[in-house]
């Protein structure tokens, strides 16, 4: 039985570099394995921005009556109609935006199209 050939010189260095790159390229955030090049701080920053945006949107909807009364000087009798119109236009805008969103190509899966930074 022959022994496997010994690789020396630049070819061996290249193999070691490729092996080291493959093992070091992926990082984890808890049980989630991240895609190569994505740092845990990238995911944490995205989550922070999402939480802040949700809090701001919730605050605006809770302060709707105050904003209409104090800043736009709208009488209370008209606030219901204006709020309904704003809700309808916002829903229509979201539906139109999501309807015309570009769908992923045949080589991509749905999960990769919506969240390329996370690979579970």
Describe this structure in words.
Residues about 115-120 have low confidence and may be disordered. Helices cover about 60% and strands about 5% of the residues. The chain has helices spanning about 10-25, 40-60, 65-70, 75-100, 110-115; strands at about 30, 30-35, 120. The protein has five helices and three strands. A three-stranded antiparallel beta sheet has the order 1-2-3, with no helix packed on it. By secondary structure, the protein is mainly α.
Q: Residue ranges: pLDDT <50 for 5 or more in a row?
A: 115-120
For the termini, the CA-CA separation is 43 Å
Gross geometry:
rod-shaped
The strands making up the biggest β-sheet line up spatially as 1-2-3
Secondary-structure element order, N to C: HEEHHHHE
Strands, count = 3
Instruction: Return the structural class.
Output: mainly alpha
Mean pLDDT across residues: 77
Q: DSSP strand (E) fraction?
A: 5-15%
Taking the sheet with the most strands, its summary is: 3 strands, antiparallel
- Can you count the helices? 5
Oligomer: single chain
Helix content: 55-70%
Rg calc: 26 Å
């Amino acid at each position: 039985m022959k022994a496997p050939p010994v690789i020396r010189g630049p070819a061996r260095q290249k193999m070691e570099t490729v092996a080291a790159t493959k093992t070091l390229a992926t990082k984890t955030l808890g049980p989630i394995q991240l895609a190569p090049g994505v740092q845990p701080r990238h995911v944490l920053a995205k989550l922070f921005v999402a939480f802040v945006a949700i809090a701001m949107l919730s605050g605006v909807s809770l302060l709707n009556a105050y904003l209409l009364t104090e800043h736009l000087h709208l009488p209370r009798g008209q606030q219901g109609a204006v709020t309904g119109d704003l809700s309808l236009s916002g829903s229509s805008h979201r539906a139109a935006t999501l309807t015309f969103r570009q769908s992923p190509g045949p080589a991509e899966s749905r999960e990769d199209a919506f969240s390329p930074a996370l690979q579970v």
